[in-house]
């Protein structure tokens, strides 16, 4: 039985609420909380049972025939989320907003979050030592605007990229950007290349009205960069229901003060992973990374793939290292924090 053939008046009250919710999230798998399980129905059940190797069953919902259904235990959510995201799906998490034991009638449920490739934050799923950016790109026909956000740290960056597709692709690959937000008019051939060759998830969105928390643009004056950054922030807030209260001021990246390394150079020099096994362990990053925190590890990686060529910045880093070498008590205190 297909969902499009079902009339709301014919189904049970619970299924009626499910169908109303599902109609707002077409093209997204809906995990619908029922007791200790997240249930999927109709086409979502068919897809999930196949992709996750779940048993497909049926449910009586007031109709003459049973509707397709499958489910997962709520405590195993992250395991199944990771598998679906890796396969390129978006998942809407619909939770019970009331205690079923104390509620009379239908329990109120709401979609509290939509999870996609660029919005995974659970330590059980993401590698906290690596970037996990979601980005937006605008094509100005002479230059690209690129903005990218890390939901774990709340950091947001924006920059211009020269009008060269290979340079743009290299930067996206080097930054390990998982998901890209673009407008419908964006170059479809370039998007296909990113999706098929580099497993980048593509989402379409058009709202680039300046983000409501305009104070995040305190250091940004360029209208093109503000609009492009607003595109990804509005998408996260409005479409994916993400809480961005921890988002920091947007940082402008001046690409002219960094040595430009393309993806092939980083790959062949084994700067962040080995050629043969794609492992971090025996790469340059793996040998150098003695950091104590995941944030420190991500910072070190950014230094390796984008070496500074600014003399003042290089000397400042050297001075900081020398200070820690000279003041071992300070170093010990910092380590213990």
Overview of this protein structure:
The protein has 337 residues and is α/β, with parallel strands linked by helices. The chain has two domains: 3-115, MutS, DNA mismatch repair protein, domain I (3-Layer(aba) Sandwich), CATH 3.40.1170.10; 120-257, MutS, connector domain (Nucleotidyltransferase, domain 5). The chain has helices at residues 13-22, 42-51, 77-86, 165-174, 188-198, 223-239, 263-268, 284-288, 294-305, 311-326, 328-336; strands spanning 29-34, 37-41, 57-59, 67-73, 91-96, 109-115, 133-139, 143-150, 155-162, 177-182, 201-204, 251-252. The relative contact order is 0.09. The mean pLDDT is 92.
Low-confidence stretches: none
Helix and strand run: HEEHEEHEEEEEHEHEHEHHHHH
Strand order of the largest sheet: 3-4-2-1-5-6
Structural class: alpha/beta
Distance between the termini: 58 Å
Tally the structural domains: 2
Number of helical elements:
11
- Strand residue percentage: 15-25%
Number of strands: 12
């Amino acid at each position: 039985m297909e969902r499009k053939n079902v009339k709301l008046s014919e189904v049970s009250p619970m299924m009626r609420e499910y169908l109303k919710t599902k109609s707002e999230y077409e093209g997204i798998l809906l995990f619908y909380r029922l007791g200790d399980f997240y249930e999927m129905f109709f086409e979502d059940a068919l897809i999930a049972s196949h992709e996750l190797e779940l048993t497909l069953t049926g449910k009586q919902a007031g109709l003459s025939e049973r509707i397709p259904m499958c489910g997962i235990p709520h405590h195993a959510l992250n395991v199944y989320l990771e598998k679906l995201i890796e396969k390129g799906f978006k998942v809407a998490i619909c939770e019970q907003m009331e205690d079923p034991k104390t509620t009379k009638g239908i329990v109120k449920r709401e979609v509290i979050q939509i999870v996609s490739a660029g919005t995974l934050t659970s330590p059980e799923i993401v590698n906290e030592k690596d970037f996990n950016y979601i980005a937006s790109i605008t094509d100005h026909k002479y230059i690209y605007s690129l903005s990218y956000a890390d939901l774990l740290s709340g950091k947001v960056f924006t920059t211009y990229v020269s009008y060269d597709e290979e340079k743009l692709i290299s930067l996206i690959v080097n930054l390990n950007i998982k998901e890209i937000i673009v407008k419908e008019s964006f170059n479809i051939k370039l998007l296909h290349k990113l999706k098929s060759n580099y497993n980048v998830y593509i989402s379409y969105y058009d709202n680039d009205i300046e983000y409501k928390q305009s104070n995040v643009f305190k250091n940004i004056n360029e209208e093109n960069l503000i609009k492009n950054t607003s595109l990804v922030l509005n998408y996260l807030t409005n479409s994916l229901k993400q809480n961005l209260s921890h988002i920091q001021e947007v940082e402008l990246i001046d690409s002219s003060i960094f040595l430009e390394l393309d993806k092939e150079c980083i790959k062949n020099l084994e700067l962040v992973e080995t050629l043969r096994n794609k492992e971090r362990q025996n790469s340059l990053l793996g040998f150098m990374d003695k950091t104590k925190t995941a944030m420190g590890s991500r910072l070190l990686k950014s230094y390796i793939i984008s070496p500074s060529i600014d003399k003042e910045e290089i000397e400042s880093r050297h001075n900081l290292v020398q200070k820690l070498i000279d003041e071992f008590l300070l170093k010990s205190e910092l380590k213990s924090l």
